[in-house]
Amino acid sequence: RKLATFDTWSSLAVHIAMDNTVVMEEIRRLCQSNFPCAGAAACPAVESDVLYNGYPEDAGVRDRLSLWKPLVLLIPLRLGLTEINEAYIETLKHCFMMPQSLGVIGGKPNSAHYFIGYVGEELIYLDPHTTQPAVEPNDSGCLPDESFHCQHPPCRMSIAELDPSIAVGFFCNTEEDFNDWCQQIKKLSLVRGALPMFELVERQPSHFSNPDVLNLTPDSSDADRLERFFDSEDEDFEILSL
Which segments of the chain does DSSP mark as H helices, in order? Predict the structure, then answer.
């Protein structure tokens, strides 16, 4: 989320829905920004050799701009106490079947996995902990994709073994994709025997705190606030002797 806010080459918008609630108004405000890049101080030069979200390098700046930034939506969830509640399993399966699905981040104690689908009562996952060489474009502008592939085949594990703390990911390339995703989520609430994993609301509930700081555009006044927001350093503690 921090990378998407400050980068100067991508127009991706990254939203993390907290408190098991997806607020459609917040997402639309984030994705319908007039800025070409989330956090860019100025538009990139047209002459740049870098590709912008798949646009050819000779595309004009206006062609790169759109009324909707491609959205990466991450929803952290806890679907039980010490083990996953069976009432959520059918809903989780339906999430994998959505065309907008990016999969699920999760695992079990001491094992983190990236889940990409399911077969029956088993989840299909990849191991995200393989270090691969960085990719550098060659002289022709092509990107070698050797390190984009897994060195080990996908594995399976029982859904019942899944730790209840997960994060579900979705990608909506256009506003139509997002509207379609919202309709699919609303239909999930009608599935018999399936318990909704999160709530989808139009506006921010009154009991919520201030809007997500990442909906701000990091200009000179907001940059310091965002840096402090993302500061991951531990606070200083003093150990008192008894």
Answer: 2-6, 24-31, 61-64, 89-97, 175-188, 223-230
> pTM here?
0.72
Find how far residue 177's CA is from the centre of its chain: 15
CA angle, 45 then 54 then 98, to 5°: 140
What pLDDT shows up at residue 8? 73
Question: What are the structure tokens assigned to 34, written together?
Answer: 């007039």
Cα distance between residue 39 and residue 52, in whole Å: 15
Are the beta carbons of 21 and 198 closer than 8 angstroms?
A: yes
Ramachandran bin of 152, using left for φ above 0, alpha for ψ from -120 to 50, beta for the remaining angles: beta
Q: Which of 169, 59, 43 is nearest to 116 (CA)?
A: 169
Residue in 125, 165, 169 with CA at minimum distance from that of residue 17: 169
72 contacts: CB under 8 Å, gap ≥ 6: 4, 12, 13, 14, 15, 102, 169, 170, 171
Q: Report the candidate in 215, 168, 184 with the shortest Cα–Cα distance to residue 25.
A: 215
Coil, helix or strand at residue 25: helix
Give the confidence band of 110 by pLDDT, cuts at 50, 70, 90: confident
Query: Helix/strand/coil (H, E, C) string of 51-67?
Result: CECCECCCCCHHHHCCC
Strands 13-16 and 21-23: unpaired
The whole-angstrom distance between residue 50's C-alpha and the CA centroid of its chain comes to 23
